[in-house]
Task: structure prediction
Amino acid sequence: MELITWDERFLLGIPSLDNEHHILADLINALATEIIDAEFNIPYSQLAHRFNVLHDSMKAHFEHEEEMMESQGFPDLAEHHREHVMLLAELKSFFSHVESGQEQIDAALLESLKTGFIVHTMVNDRQYAAVLRDAGTARPQEGSPRSPLSPFPGTGQTTPVTLSR
Result:
């Protein structure tokens, strides 16, 4: 299932971040596909793995964004960082509620992931993209692009970590 259909609307004109956004969309789509294919009854270990990969990838992406913003003295870095912290906390909280049985996996979860991705990418990230492009920070990545579902550089993760317990 393609919950998020990737298209030019998501592009910021910063190749490394555009690639990471595409990977995050792929990760959300993979999670949605597994949940729907399992008719919303996905085994815990499979769900935990997907959530961990998504969480770690989001965290690495947010750190990369913040490093780029800091290097250019982006004035709203603190606010953008708070948003990143909130998004990661919401993902952890939701997973904790699913893990404890307090919340069910349903279409609302998938819609929430989709909406969060779209708003963050198309609204919040656009606030700093022009600053980075103008500063020349937006250079194409060297080497070949990462494939969807591959880990982000710097996460140091070869196996998933536990989000909560």
